[in-house]
């Protein structure tokens, strides 16, 4: 895999993710199943990087999942689902195109209908390139067969499932999935719980729009909602509020330095204030986070 020239901390992110994508590592990973509410479950990788969190709707109509991790996790996903309920997967909803959320598409498409935003299909059909290197176009079996521009509603397992596009935050094809009756939302990679997010600038992501999207979602969701992040632990609306404050404070900090005429390297050398630096809990460290913001501001 070839990498672009990027800051050292982002290289660390890539190397860790690549290591997690090795076959020997997948053999060690297990999936933790959490009942979130009613018939909605969360599947989360344990002992390694399995990919993004999966939401599961299991009931009399069958099984619907949100995202499907790396392809190497497919058998473990099937096993985890069989412990919830027997039967095949009817629908897969992709929150965006990245391989740690769509890798199982080609495996499950023989039994499930894949639904996603228009840009997810477009990106899976073509070669892509970002800080992780080059991703070749995916096989036809991995392409969503139902796509939408703004939103789509699915009625399944006595649940109203609203899939809503929030543009140009993490990528240009992101959606969140709201299980209305169960009061659960899967945020995709608009939400990295307790950590700085990865913003894919090469896929038309933008930190400023990312923050605006979170503000819109906070206005939409009730106070007692349960939130499944793209990565990280099951969360509450208060957790998302703290995350949004971090986004706003980070943007304000970098914007002030840009207004003072500082370069990217000068801002990185100064570093973030302590209340923001604690969000380095994940793969993205402060230098990478500052770079995402700086480039978003500069357009």
Structural features, described:
The protein is of the alpha/beta class. The chain has one domain (8-243): Metallo-beta-lactamase, Chain A (4-Layer Sandwich), CATH 3.60.15.10. 35% of the residues lie in helices and 24% in strands. The chain is built from eleven helices and 15 strands. The chain has helices spanning 8-20, 23-26, 74-84, 99-102, 105-108, 118-124, 207-220, 237-259, 264-270, 274-277, 286-298, and strands spanning 30-37, 40-46, 54-59, 62-66, 89-93, 113-117, 128-130, 133-135, 146-148, 151-156, 159-165, 175-179, 184-186, 226-228, 235-236. The strands form three sheets. Strands 1-2-3-4-5-6-9 form a seven-stranded mixed beta sheet. A hairpin with a 2-residue loop joins strand 3 (54-59) and strand 4. Helix 8 (237-259) packs across helix 11 and helix 9 runs antiparallel to helix 11. It is globular and about 60 Å long. The two termini are 27 Å apart. Residues 1-24 have low confidence and may be disordered.
């Amino acid at each position: 895999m070839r990498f672009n020239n990027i800051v050292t901390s982002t290289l660390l992110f890539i190397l860790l993710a690549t290591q997690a994508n090795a076959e020997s590592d997948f053999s060690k990973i297990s999936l933790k199943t959490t009942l979130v509410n009613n018939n909605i479950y969360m599947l989360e990788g344990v002992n390694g990087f399995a990919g993004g969190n999966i939401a599961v709707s299991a009931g009399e109509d069958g099984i619907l999942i949100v995202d499907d991790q790396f392809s190497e996790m497919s058998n473990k996903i099937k096993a985890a689902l069989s412990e919830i309920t027997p039967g095949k997967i009817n629908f897969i909803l992709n929150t965006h195109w990245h391989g740690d959320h769509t890798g199982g598409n080609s495996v499950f498409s023989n039994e499930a209908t894949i639904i996603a935003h228009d840009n997810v299909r477009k990106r899976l059909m073509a070669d892509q390139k970002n800080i992780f290197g080059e991703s070749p176009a995916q096989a036809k079996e991995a392409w969503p067969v139902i796509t939408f521009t703004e939103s789509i509603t699915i009625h399944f397992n006595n649940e109203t499932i609203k899939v809503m596009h929030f543009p140009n935050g993490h990528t240009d094809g992101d959606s969140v999935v709201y299980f209305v009756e169960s009061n659960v939302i899967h945020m995709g990679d608009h939400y990295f719980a307790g950590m700085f997010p990865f913003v894919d600038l090469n896929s038309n992501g933008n930190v400023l729009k990312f923050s605006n999207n979170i503000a819109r979602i906070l206005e939409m969701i009730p106070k007692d909602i349960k939130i499944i992040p793209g990565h990280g632990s099951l969360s509450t609306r208060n957790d998302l509020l703290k995350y949004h404050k971090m986004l706003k404070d980070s943007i304000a900090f970098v914007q002030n330095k840009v207004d003072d005429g500082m370069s990217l390297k000068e801002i990185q050398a100064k570093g973030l204030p302590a209340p923001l630096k604690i969000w380095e809990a994940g793969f993205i460290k402060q230098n990478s986070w500052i770079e995402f913001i700086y480039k978003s501001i500069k357009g």
